[in-house]
Amino acid sequence: MAHRKSQRPAPKRAIFAHDPLTGRTAEVRAIQPHAAQKPYRCPGCRQEIAPGVGHVVVVPLADASERRHWHTACWENRATRPPGW
Ligand SMILES: [Zn+2]
């Protein structure tokens, strides 16, 4: 009888990235649509992230109060589309 590999879901690992706004290493967390209950201003495009829209929050390790909410696409394109800070 073949031994079936257990299909446990992989543990959620934190994703770390360089945050261009603060110049610091930041933790990137996905915000699910149901968890997005307030509008946020995306620093990438300076447009609003509407409530109910899944996005990412970028939390500098050194100072969580400097966290910023980004559209997922804006964050992924942060290197190629300078938002003109
Ligand atoms: Zn954006």
Can you walk through the features of this model?
This protein has 85 residues and is mainly beta. The chain has one domain (16-76). The protein has 1 helix and 6 strands, in the order ββββββα. It has one helix at residues 72-76; strands at residues 15-19, 24-31, 40-41, 48-49, 55-60, 68-70. Strands 1-2-5-6 form a 4-stranded antiparallel beta sheet. A two-stranded antiparallel sheet has the order 3-4. The longest helix has 5 residues, at 72-76. It binds zinc ion. Residues 42, 44-45, 47, 71, 74 line the site of zinc ion (ZN). Zinc ion is lined by residues 42, 44-45, 47, 71, 74.
Our estimate of the beta-strand percent is: 25-35%
| Counted beta strands | 6
pLDDT < 50 stretches: none
Which molecules are bound in this entry? zinc ion
What structural category characterises the helix and strand content? Answer: mainly beta
- The string of secondary-structure elements, in order, is EEEEEEH
Helicity, in percent? under 10%
* Number of alpha- plus pi-helical segments: 1
Please state the average pLDDT score: 89
Looking across the biggest beta sheet, what order are the strands in?
Answer: 1-2-5-6
- Our count of domains comes out at 1
Short overview:
The protein is mainly beta and 85 residues long.
